[in-house]
């Protein structure tokens, strides 16, 4: 009986814990690429700006939290109860928090560098797209100019080849009788 109730309690606890865990979030960059690939140019720019704002907001929140944690640790270390305490667990606990904050500072610095690199890559990417669009537009203009030149040249060539009304054909265009074999020349 006790085993059965313990098993039921374990199952209930496991499902409760499982239900409370957050589903893994999709990376922001993946969502941005999906939005950019399926939307218009204006929509992609607004989505890109929203993504940048969200990243910047998260970085600022992390910085604020770390600053608060540093202040709290300094207050804890400066408190008279901790200074006068001879308990090794208290000192070990403060050391652990100090090490953890150092690690969080390193990770925060990496996040800032990654955010700057991402902004740089996005700027390069947009410059490359702009350059490619300008090149394609220039090619289209060149092709249109070439087509216009061909049409103009074709019209001017057609105008000189067609006889004007009321004019006689040129002497070179009149058919001449070809000499027959066996006929002699008038010398």
Which terms summarize this structure?
187 residues, mainly alpha, 78% helix, rod-shaped
Structure description:
By secondary structure, the chain is mainly α. 78% of the residues lie in helices and 0% in strands. It is built from five helices and no strands. The chain has helices at 2-20, 28-38, 41-78, 80-83, 88-161. Helix 2 (28-38) packs antiparallel against helix 3 and helix 3 (41-78) packs antiparallel against helix 5. It is rod-shaped, with a radius of gyration of 42 Å. 0% of the residues are buried.
Gyration radius, to the nearest Å?
42 Å
Could you tell me the mean pLDDT? 76
Number of strands: 0
Order of helices and strands: HHHHH
Residues in β-strands, percent: under 5%
What's the helical proportion of residues?
A: over 70%
Silhouette: rod-shaped
Most strands sheet = none
From the N-terminal CA to the C-terminal CA, the straight-line distance is 142 Å
Spans of at least 5 consecutive residues whose pLDDT stays below 50 are: none
What is the count of DSSP helices, taking H or I runs of 4+ residues? 5
What is the structural class? mainly alpha
Describe this structure in a few short sentences.
The protein is mainly alpha-helical and 187 residues long. It contains 5 helices and no strands.
């Amino acid at each position: 009986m006790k085993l059965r109730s313990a098993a039921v309690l374990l199952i209930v606890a496991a499902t409760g814990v499982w239900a409370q865990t957050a589903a893994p979030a999709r990376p922001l960059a993946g969502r941005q690429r999906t939005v950019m690939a399926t939307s218009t140019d204006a929509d992609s720019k607004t989505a890109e700006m929203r993504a940048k704002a969200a990243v910047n907001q998260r970085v600022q929140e992390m910085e604020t939290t770390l600053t608060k944690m540093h202040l709290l640790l300094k207050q804890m270390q400066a408190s008279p109860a901790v200074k006068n305490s001879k308990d090794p667990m208290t000192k070990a606990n403060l050391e652990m928090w100090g090490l953890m904050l150092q690690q969080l500072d390193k990770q925060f610095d990496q996040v800032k560098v990654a955010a700057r690199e991402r902004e740089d890559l996005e700027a390069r990417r947009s410059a490359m797209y702009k350059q490619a669009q300008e090149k394609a537009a220039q090619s289209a203009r060149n092709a249109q100019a070439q087509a216009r030149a061909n049409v103009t040249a074709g019209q001017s060539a057609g105008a000189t080849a067609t006889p004007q009304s009321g004019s006689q054909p040129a002497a070179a265009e009149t058919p001449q009788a070809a000499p027959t074999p066996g006929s002699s020349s008038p010398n």
